[in-house]
Every structure is written in structure tokens, then in C-alpha cells.
Amino acid sequence: MATLDVLIADGVIDEVLGRLKSGKEADISLVRRGGEVIAAKVYKDRSTRSFKNNSDYKEGRKVRNSRTQRAIDSGGRFGRDAAEQAWKSAEADALYKLRGTGVRVPEPVMFYEGVLLMTVVCDAAGQPAPRLIDVAIERDAAIAIYADLVSQMIAMLCGDLIHGDLSPYNILAAADGPTIIDFPQVVSAVHSSRAEFFFLRDFDNVVRFLAGFDPSLAVHSADGRAIWRAYVSRELTPQFVPPPPPPPRSNTRGRDRRSRSDNRGRGQQQQQQPRHGGPRPQQQQQGGRPPPSRPAPPPGRRPPPTVVRWSADGPSNARPTQSGRRRPKRRF
User: Fold this and answer.
1) Phi, psi torsion values for 305, nearest 5 degrees
2) Measured between alpha carbons, how far is residue 243 from residues 157, 196, 328 in Å?
3) Is 187 exposed, middle or buried (0-12, 13-18, 19+ CB in 10 A)?
4) Which of 77, 200, 247, 276 is 20 to 30 A from residue 148's alpha carbon, by CA?
5) First vs last C-alpha separation in the chain
6) Predicted TM-score of the model (pTM)
7) Where are the alpha helices (DSSP H) in 214-290?
8) CB atoms within 10 A of CB 261
9) Nearest Cα to 183, choosing from 57, 77, 286, 310?
10) Which CATH number fits domain 2-118: 3.30.40.230, 3.30.200.20, 3.40.190.10, 1.25.40.10?
């Protein structure tokens, strides 16, 4: 809060309304600036934030001042401080770059004294939008959300940017569609040697999450590699559409010659006689009675019915109840 006091003293903001979210790398508060309520993101120092292993993300990042860049490369105290400031400003740079590219992100207002001011992403009720992990999604809506997020990932990649840590934890269920947040670890697709790894990991996180609501989406797991191949071959455009997934494999094996028809005309597999005098697969008991069947395992705990929070017509504002996911769903 001391950092926000500096912004108040300098007249950048008028009032701190309260804490909105606390994450592994930053705290977000609601503040008033003039007649508008916006979000203020205060980044934690490297010594206190839990997300510290960021060397892979910073590969290829350059600052404009050549003297500062040489200090960062040398690893001295001044260089470490400069690298920390560059890490904090990376999100603001990414948000400004992504405006108007088709990527749905919070609108940046200002980056001042290490604090990012941006618009508040709201749901259909005008409240701060929840994370995608905190809402239930109707099966028919999952494919539309998948197509929307893939389009945004393609647009980012066309701008040589990769989110680097994309998951349902940093995608907001906003009124106008899924909105991507948290860009401090944004990766340069051109300069990072691990760019392909980060892109495919982001893509896999999105597919696996949405396939939990619509299992048929699992066939699109190969779309990420198709998009990356198009990017490497300089054929990727914002209008790129991944090729359709291959059809499921059919059983091309012929009819088992050992099968025969029973009295009802349906194929019935003959049991093979065991070799070396071993027991038969289903050995009968004395008296010609068949062996007792094993008792069925006790039924597991049935999950509560899934609550429809995001339908094909868009986000809903109905009050959630306990859903079939891991936690109660927030209002959306």
C-alpha cells in the first residue's frame, strides 16, 4: 500500500478503494482516478514473490538504453535492479502492443513508479469478472470459447508474443468474452530459444481445461503444432485456421475366424483351450455351476450436477450453486 500512497501524493490517483486480488507476483487494488474506478497492479519484489524462476522468460528481452542493457548483461547490482524494473514494465509494454490486434486484454491507463494502472474487466452484471477456473461452462459453449482463445493466441503470435503462463487462472470470464490477463512473463517468439515450448504449453493448458467440459475438444490437441509450423514458415496470419483433426481410427481388422454364431445369430468368441493342462479362463465349480461373479466395486461418490454458468448464448448472471468441479463457483 505504501507504493499506492506515492501515487496519491503525486496526484495520479485519488483514493484506494480496496484489495481486489493477491497473486503470486502482484497485488491488484481498486482505486479511484477522477470519476473512474480502475485497477492498480503493484508488483512484488523478486525476494517476496513466489514466481522467481523467470530467466527463461526474460531471454531475448532488451531495453532501449544500451548502457542499461550492458549493466543487465553484466549482472551487477545496478543491472539486477534494472532487470527487475524491466520485468515489471513488460506487462504494460505487452498490453500497449496488443491493443487493436484482436487480443482481448485490459486497457492500459498508465505505468507509473512500477505500478500498472488499467481498466477493470467486468462481467455481465458490471462486477469484476471472475477467472475462468471459477465458472462452470456449458458443453455447447466450450467450442466457442476454444475458438475465441485460439484466435487470440494466433493474434498474439502474429505479433511475435507468447503469453508464457496461459491457463484458466489468468483468463477472465468477461461480459464480452474470455479476456487474457497477467503478462509479466510474456515471451518473445523471435528471440527466445524456448518459444515453441511456451506456446505449446499455453495451448495445451487451454485445450485440456475446455475438454473437461466438452471431451470432443481433445482431438484439437494437435492444433497448437499446426499453428506453430505456420508461424515458423511465415504463413501465419490472424485469419489462420488449423486443419481439421484426423478422423478417429477405425478397426480395420477382419472378423475373427474363431467366432461363431449362437442361436440368436450374434457372434460369440470361442474360448481358447489352455496349454499345458492349465486352468480354463472361467473354470466351473463342482456340480456344473458357474463360478460366482465378483461383486461389483461400490459406486463412487457422484459429483453434483454441473451448473450452467456460461452457455452458448454468453455468460449468465444466475447465482451459482455447488458444481461438479473442484470448488464452489463464484458469481458470474
Assistant:
1) -60, 145
2) 18, 19, 37
3) buried
4) 247
5) 29
6) 0.71
7) 223-232
8) 9
9) 57
10) 3.30.200.20
